[in-house]
Amino acid sequence: MNQTNQTQTMQSKRNPYLFPFLMVATLFFIWGFCHAMLDVLNKHFQNLLSLTKTQSGLIQTAFFVAYLLVAFPAANMIRRIGYQRGILVGLVILAVGAFLFIPAGMVFKTFGAFLCALFVLASGLACIETAANPYVTVLGPKDGAAGRLSVAQAFNSCAYILAPTVGGYLLFGKEVDPKHPDFAPLLLPYIVLGCVVLLIFAAFSFVKLPVIEGTSSEEDSAGDAVIKAPLSRLPHFKWGVFTQFLYIISQIGIGAFAVNYIVQNAIVKDATGNVATAPLFTWYQNLTHAKTDDAAAAYVISFAFILYAIGRFSGAAIAKVIKPNLMLAIYGVANCLIVGVAMADIKMLSWIFLPFSFLFMSIMFPFIFALSIRNLGEQTKIAASFHVMAVGVAGSISAVAMGWLWDNYHSVGISFLLPLIGFVATAIYGLAYPKLLAKSEKAA
Fold it and tell me: What are the Cα distances from residue 12, in Å, to 5, 82, 140, 199?
């Protein structure tokens, strides 16, 4: 124990925030896994229960409605009890939600029961995210906030790589019979998740994180003036939340139906019933030993999330050379071009480009978040809750909306208009940010 304390003391002398940063980064991994599993669950329940795309989109709705309902109460709770205790509360709720998958799959065996379990699980995540995201931004120099949050989110991305692989292996490893649905393969990842969360809860219970509160002085530790005007008068914050809302629609929408899109674009059946498969997709299916087309597509999403992780790790480094708001604009334009190719739906070709949208999405949430809460002082916690609520609103409608458009218009182009709007908004916010921040500073 003494050696451990001495090691932490030596680390604190070099960088007092390194150890707490790494502790909080484990939380990003956990909620990344939970988020990425949604995309696999979406296609799994379509197969297992013969659901339409609109109906399976309710998975995202149940999950993200919790963000909408819980974020603001969580922010007020965190203001009273602090970041660390807020994280502990979130971990308990998250574990309960994970273990609720057991009765959902073994007793009730209904889609509604799983939606209820997801709602509870997401309520815990909403508490954790409301605390962890702003905590990382204040856990060090302000100029590095966007890059620091991007690195923390990279741990999130590592889980995004793992989840589709786990889901593809467990859920798409064999053909399913909708008349006799078997929920057993779905339980194992969530039972393991619940146990891991309890271990993390124990670790956070015994480790004391630095207490960092929003400052009420005229200047913060970096010498920048704290903006004390109400949040409603701050355009860099308001437009940041609105941009986050539109971006999350893009991210959730693409993720929810990426497996559908890849399978339908890479495997084409002509009028005579002949089936043609993209050579690259066949090669990848053989490489991964995927037993079904859906499993191979899920493994393609794993590759997409490798790009996502690369983007987040590299984003922090690039942000030291290129201003974060300019990076945001460039990445937004890049994804507009990729979504344009997806909308064109060039059979056996467009699916190849879709995974690269994840590379350029990688920095968007952390950069929008960090830019929009800059210089907010003691208003930071409440400001962060608005971002979590934006995630909740966008997540609850995006998958259902895209699924409805796809089901009713049978058009990839029309359904992918929603992600296109989000990426256009992200590019505009990045370009307009300096003027928006200047207006916020004048509002004070």
Answer: 10, 21, 13, 24
pLDDT at 15: 65
Instruction: State residue 216's pLDDT score.
Output: 41
The residue type of 64 is: F
Contact 351, 278 (CB under 8 A): yes
Three-state SS for 100? coil
Encoded amino acid at 350, one letter: S
Q: Class for domain 13-210+218-443, per CATH? A: mainly alpha
CA distance 414 to 421: 12
What pLDDT sits at residue 12?
A: 45
What are the φ and ψ backbone dihedral angles of 16, each rounded to 5 degrees?
-65, -15
Residues 6+ apart with CB under 8 A from 15: none
Task: State residue 218's pLDDT score.
Answer: 43
The per-residue pLDDT for 138 is: 81
Asked if residues 228 and 377 have their Cβ atoms less than 8 Å apart, the reply is yes
The pLDDT, as a whole number, for residue 255 is 84
- The two structure tokens encoding residue 131: 């605390």
Specify whether the CB–CB gap between 288 and 299 falls below 8 A: yes
Q: HSE of 308 in the Cβ direction (CA atoms, 13 Å)?
A: 29
Q: Name residue, tokens 């078997």.
A: 182
**How many CB atoms lie under 10 A from the CB of residue 401?**
19
Burial of residue 413 (number of CB atoms within 10 Å: 0-12, 13-18, 19+) = middle
pLDDT tens digits for 215-256? 444 444 444 678 888 999 999 999 999 999 999 999 988 988
By the 8 A CB rule, do 250 and 179 touch?
A: no
pLDDT at residue number 118: 95
Q: Give the DSSP H or E segment for 269.
A: strand 267-269
- Tokens for 229, please give them: 């005007």
H or E stretch including 4? helix 2-14
Residues 246, 421: Cα–Cα separation, whole Å: 7
For the record, the structure tokens of 438 come out as 């200047």
β-strand partners of 276: 268
Amino acid letter for position 401: A
pTM of this prediction exceeds 0.85 = no
Q: Which of 94, 90, 95, 98 is nearest to 114 (CA)?
A: 98
Q: Please, where are the H alpha helices in 17-110? A: 18-49, 53-56, 58-81, 83-99, 101-103
Question: For the chain, which residues score pLDDT lower than 50?
Answer: 1, 4, 7-12, 215-223
Measure the CA–CA gap between 50 and 327, rounded to whole angstroms.
Answer: 42
Distance CA 333, CA 339 (A): 10
Residue written as token pair 């992600």 = 419
Which phi and psi angles does 291 have, rounded to 5°?
-85, -20
